[in-house]
Write a structure and sequence with these properties.
The two termini are 54 Å apart. The longest helix is centred in the middle third of the chain and has 20 residues, at 343-362. By secondary structure, the protein is an alpha+beta fold. It is built from eight helices and 34 strands. The chain folds into four domains: 55-181 and 319-325, Glutaredoxin; 183-317, Glucose Oxidase, domain 1 (3-Layer(bba) Sandwich), CATH 3.50.30.30; 362-501, Jelly Rolls (Sandwich), CATH 2.60.120; 503-667, Jelly Rolls. Strand 29 and strand 30 form a beta hairpin. The chain binds 2-acetamido-2-deoxy-beta-D-glucopyranose (NAG) (7 copies). One 2-acetamido-2-deoxy-beta-D-glucopyranose binds at residues 564, 566, 572, 574, 645.
């Protein structure tokens, strides 16, 4: 399992892989440079810090610029656009970019899914910029016309001037931010050729075939369409055409033939495709690398004439292909594209819309108590601060957490790699019942430093039972550093629905916490008896529940669990994590603040009650009508958690549930 992530030389990374990779599901797009093993045998993992600013950085203001376009010119002045501007530097030297521009799904998502606020400026890196611009425009125009979306063209701008002749500051961003960008290539050689032949490739989609090419040189053997096993390819790289059967069938039959890898070539005139499995094929794990390429006449000829051809794999540094200017006029990164699709651009644009809206919400009147301002959160201690609460706390009925997580440097590549739980604890009265109760929970993003969330935790106001409170924010002690920012926002909300004064939470009763999700999970929970205090107007169930870990059913991170609070043996309140494990589960939540385009599998599988790069939303249910409200009568509550409607019963490595749950009494 760990071996597929190619970090054999890195002890600490292997450790992280073991704790963080769910069986069969790759979570992190491995970056070997983040793991270092010095000569003395100690292992350090450190965030790369960028050199002192030598060029533009994310967060810098974008200057005015003008570029010539196919329709005239496009001018940007700070404040001239209502939303974000994406800038793309096309190059047909990249198999990934070629596929981005050829795939129906990708073009369709651009013309149907680009949020109205966003514009895109398309440039080319190459001398073919005039034909590139015309071709790009034609590709989107066709996609737009066939889907009745021609109006999107007014927000897309195509420049025929190559990047190296732009004469403005735009190229400096593409070159300076290129750091991790690579052109993936195949190198062919054969006796009698003066030079090796180097062509672009697109590796099979990473979550389907996790094996990647190594440093070796292989013999290349023609295996026809590759649909049937062929003993001649053992130990070699199989050269197979795209025709006659699925990509899966080809790779599977070549794997059965003990090939070291597969190169699928496009038939003449066809574009490079994103090789993936479909439906039931995806249940089978294959473990040899495979890539798609264009056919190469000199290779085909040599193979035909029986002349041996050898193949190796390389990647060449290149400028980045996207950046953006956000709605405030600030330079920003777009994050990682896990596969070639403009959907990633749409998700980043949706996030900018979320972020613009968040800025407006943060301007609404509130008493703000600053807690952390870019404070290092790392190790057992986490980030800790003691703050004074505003006087007249009883006047407020709303408490929101305004939290953000950023990285050691300005670039995403300086960010921590994994998705971990972050918890915020509060203690206002060290002798009181609530000291160090959880006030908020988030999940970190894979290597992106843009997360910023506003979470309504008003029902927990009674936790603030003193004037001076200590807040502690922590993630797992072995996580790489994050910088946390947190403000408490106290305000008054008048929405009652029926005109009366909004009740205020005055008392809170802790209920259950979670634990190991094994066959004894539910045996730990006993019924709790309680009576409702006098003067109570409303009672609410408040729970923050997340499921983690991976047993043989991928529970709890990727399995559907349900959580039940049964009141008075009759009222069954149920929360089901039904998007856990679903494809694209977390992309739905980008508009609510889930960080898009993380450098890991943020989108591909819904999680058990959470998404990467998002706050965990409290589950709140008004249970007033389920209770005997008289203070002289008693009520009962019991919690249980189920997997597929039954007690969990894993045979290995049980997962676990992290839960805080309370009854909140309002007056
Ligand atoms: C991109 O390159 C491929 C082969 O290298 C070629 O077939 C295709 O026509 C090129 N597309 C454009 C737009 O230049
Ligand atoms: C596809 O299958 C047909 C029929 O078996 C065969 O004639 C043809 O050569 C195959 N195509 C390739 C590229 O192998
Ligand atoms: C592949 O290798 C395995 C193990 O060495 C061997 O048993 C099998 O016969 C080989 N298959 C082919 C088609 O060469
Ligand atoms: C593949 O997996 C899915 C989901 O787990 C399952 O429903 C399906 O039956 C499996 N198909 C095969 C052929 O095993
Ligand atoms: C809520 O009520 C207060 C006091 O009556 C008033 O000042 C405030 O404008 C109201 N806010 C909203 C959003 O209606
Ligand atoms: C409390 O409420 C439950 C549900 O409404 C009801 O079944 C039960 O009889 C009540 N108990 C008393 C003592 O009133
Ligand atoms: C509560 O509801 C869930 C699902 O709706 C069900 O599986 C469970 O058995 C119910 N429990 C009780 C005690 O009614």
């Amino acid at each position: 399992m760990a071996a597929v992530l190619r970090s054999k030389s890195c002890v600490l990374c292997l450790l992280l892989v073991v704790v963080s990779v769910s069986e069969g599901k790759v979570k992190l797009i491995q970056d070997q440079s983040a793991c270092e093993e010095p000569q003395d045998g100690t292992v350090t993992v450190r965030a790369r810090t960028p050199p002192a600013a030598l060029g533009p950085e994310p967060g810098d203001p974008a200057d005015t610029f003008t570029v010539r376009t196919l329709d005239g010119e496009f001018s940007y002045r700070p404040g001239s656009l209502g939303g974000p501007l994406f800038v793309h530097a096309f190059t047909n030297k990249s198999g990934f970019v070629e596929c981005l521009w050829s795939s129906e799904e990708s073009l369709s998502s651009l013309v149907t899914g680009l949020p109205d606020s966003a514009r895109v400026l398309f440039l080319s890196q190459d001398e073919s910029s005039v034909s590139d611009a015309l071709w790009m425009r034609e590709q989107v125009l066709q996609a737009a016309v066939s889907r009745g979306k021609k109006e999107v063209m007014s927000r897309l701008h195509f420049s025929p001037v190559p990047m190296f002749m732009q004469g403005n500051w735009i190229p400096s961003v593409f070159y300076f931010w290129g750091g991790v960008s690579r052109l993936a290539q195949v190198v062919f050689s054969s006796e009698g050729w003066k030079l090796p032949v180097v062509i672009k490739r697109l590796d099979a989609r990473y979550d389907w075939l996790t094996a990647r090419w190594g440093q070796s040189t292989y013999e290349l053997i023609d295996a026809g369409d590759g649909c049937d096993p062929s003993p001649s390819v053992a130990g070699a790289v199989a050269w197979v055409s795209e025709s006659n059967c699925s990509f899966f069938t080809k790779v599977q039959s070549m794997s059965k033939s003990n090939a070291s890898g597969v190169l699928v070539y496009a038939l003449s005139g066809n574009p490079i495709q994103d090789m993936n499995c479909v439906e039931d094929e995806c249940n089978t794990t294959l473990s040899i690398p495979a890539s798609m390429v264009h056919t190469e006449p000199s290779v085909a000829q040599a193979l035909q004439s029986g002349q041996p051809v050898f193949v190796s794999f390389q990647s060449t540094p290149s400028p980045t292909t996207f950046f953006c200017i956000d709605h405030r006029g600030t330079l920003a990164e777009i994050g990682g594209f896990l596969y070639p699709s403009f959907s990633f651009l749409n998700w980043q644009a949706q996030w900018f819309d979320f972020y613009a809206d968040l800025q407006i919400k943060l301007k609404s009147p509130a008493k703000v108590v600053p807690v952390f301002e870019k404070v290092l959160m790392q190790g057992d201690k986490g980030a800790v601060a003691t703050v004074d609460l505003p006087s007249g706390l009883l006047d407020f009925n709303t408490l929101e957490l305004d939290a953000a997580l950023s990285c050691p440097g300005k670039r995403d590549l300086t960010c921590a790699h994994w998705d971990h739980t972050v918890q915020l604890y509060v203690c206002c009265d060290p002798a009181g019942p609530y000291c160090n109760t959880e006030l908020g929970r988030w999940i970190t993003a894979f290597r992106r430093g843009i997360g910023h969330w506003l979470t309504d935790v008003s029902p927990l106001l009674p936790l603030l039972d003193g004037n001076k409170c200590t807040l502690t924010m922590k993630t797992v002690p072995w996580a790489m550093p994050w910088f946390t920012s947190l403000n408490l926002r106290f305000s008054i909300s008048n929405q009652t629905g029926n005109g009366g004064e909004k009740p205020r939470p005055v008392r809170l009763m802790p209920l259950y916490d979670g634990g190991t999700f094994d066959k004894n999970y539910n045996k730990r929970f006993q019924p709790i008896k309680f009576s409702v205090p006098a003067r109570t107007k409303k009672v609410e169930l408040y729970a923050v529940i997340t499921a983690h870990g991976s047993d043989e059913n991928e529970c709890g991170e990727f399995c559907v669990t349900s959580h039940h609070f049964l009141f008075n043996n009759v009222f069954n309140n149920t929360l089901v994590f039904d998007s856990a494990g679903s494809p694209l589960g977390c992309t739905e939540q980008v508009k609510d603040g889930a960080v898009p385009n993380e450098h890991g599998t943020w989108l591909l599988y819904g999680r058990g009650g959470w998404c990467d790069g998002l706050q965990v939303n409290p589950w709140r249910i008004d249970i007033t009508k389920q209770l005997n409200m008289s203070s002289s009568q008693s009520n009962t509550v019991i919690y249980f958690g189920l997997y597929e409607g039954r007690d969990p019963n894993p045979s290995k490595q049980p997962g676990y549930i992290i839960m805080s749950s309370f009854l909140i009494f309002y007056e």
